[in-house]
Amino acid sequence: MAAKKIISVGLKKLGYADVLTTGIPTTWTDIDVVHEDTFDYSVEAGSEEQYINELDGQPYHIDGQNGTPLMSFSIGKYDLELKAEFFGGTYAAATASANESWIPSADGASVYKAFRAVTEDDVVIIFPKARVTPSHTRNIKALGLTLQARPMKLDTATPLEKWEVDDTKTA
Question: Do residues 149 and 112 touch, judged by C-beta distance below 8 A?
């Protein structure tokens, strides 16, 4: 089968899952509303250090480190239970004697989730384990849950990130 040319633009679907001990999740919870024009995938610039030969001024060795991938987006419509998923803390559903509530974590503990984004041309980008950095950002007419997800190594067998083309779609 010939390789499909991809452009990886536009977001069609975004989901998250709890991080597994090993491997990539197969079941995802969809995020229903991603605020317009907030989804982004990027790779930060890497670093490089050159070792220069003092005799001729030319590099003889270069150490480098690749940049870190980053997935960022703003959830435009959410409830307190979803907020607790990404901000941590304690969520309590409404009862006959108490309102629904969310209390932030006192220690600011890190939150880890797996993420799966599908672009409009069916490119699937998966972070099996990502550290979530949440914040609130004012979007047009909404206070969104703005999230940044940076992939982290899960185990020796699972990739840091995975790209695949969903070729089950008919052209």
Answer: no
